[in-house]
Amino acid sequence: MSDLAGSPSRAAVRAEAKRLRAVFEAAGGEVVETTILQPAEVLLDLYGEDIRARAYVTSDPLKGEQMLRPDFTVPVVQMHMDSGAEPARYTYSGEVFRRQEDDPRRASEYFQVGYEVMGAAAPAEADAEVFALMQDILAPLGLTPATGDIGILMAAIDGLGTTDARKAALRRHVWRPRRFRALIDRFSGRAPVPASRAALLGAADPMAEAGPLIGLRSASEIAARIDALRADAVAAPIAEGEVDLLSAMLAVRETCPNALEQLRDIAVDMPALRGAVAALAARLDAMDARGVDVAALPFETSYGRAQMEYYDGFVFGFTSDAHPDLPPIATGGRYDALTRRLGAGREIPAVGGVIRPGLVARLTAEAGGAA
User: Fold this and answer.
1) Rounded to 5 degrees, what are φ and ψ at 204?
2) Phi, psi at 268, each rounded to 5°
3) pTM here?
4) What is the pLDDT of residues 294-340, one digit of tens each?
5) CA pair distance 167, 161, nearest whole angstrom
6) Is 76 strand, coil or helix?
7) Which DSSP category does 194 fall into?
8) Pure H helices in the chain
């Protein structure tokens, strides 16, 4: 159940999961459960590419595609949006499943214990509550925290002087940093349009010699895509100054107070950031009020961009410096946009986090004590 040799027994992991869930219950979390087998359609649309590639998917003759639960957040949010009252706090524990194609030592089945806060009136306070609770639980293990804010990057994209189609493409690829950078280079004119695409767009009738249709797209869908590419080809490039400001913002990696000052400086020339930077300042004040040492807390604007795609604001994680090969022991963040997608347009503020009890049990045993 762990990613280390000599992993704790299944009974020990279950005992640790029970202990962790009891802490979340004491904090006000209502215990909820979800089925292990989940409808695949919604999950495949919502989870990031990493989990999409690692999901266990099967087909049911009556229910269609099903997936072994890769995470708890989406089904818990779906449950809440269907019938929950607000504000609400939930906790849960159980197994999740991820295929491992690169490292056979990594567990493909392991426990998660989580805590979610939905509908809280003050998002900064809820962010601080979840982070401080996780930090307090994990403090005996001496883990290293990391924080970031996807919302700052989203705000910067929304403020760019470019087309809505380009902004949508950048938002879609926020979680794929290499693809995101390639798009910025192309949209700013720093990278040329590929020769094959230029030839296609320059043809009077790109479909003239295409042959029979053998893919899933119809002729009208292909034509619409070509029209969109042609419109993009004549759009003005993103200004160099905006690209430089975006790069400076993405490069911010400091302690929280210093990062806040750097981002405030950038926001002077990029006004679209002001709201998101003000939200960061409010969160740090709320964390400080809960006893978090924000002066020493790391912040990185790009942190969390390789995690699941439903995070759209504050993100955090805790890792073990003694075991850099391990995944984070705990992760979490804000996912307001996910509630809108699952709530048929109704959006509520929501933040949460998960801990891997198997890793906690192993590191606790190494430390020779209880967490």
Assistant:
1) -65, -40
2) -60, -40
3) 0.87
4) 999 999 999 988 766 789 999 999 999 999 989 999 999 999 988 98
5) 9
6) helix
7) P
8) 10-26, 40-46, 49-54, 73-83, 123-138, 150-158, 164-172, 177-187, 195-202, 219-233, 240-250, 256-269, 274-289, 336-342, 357-367
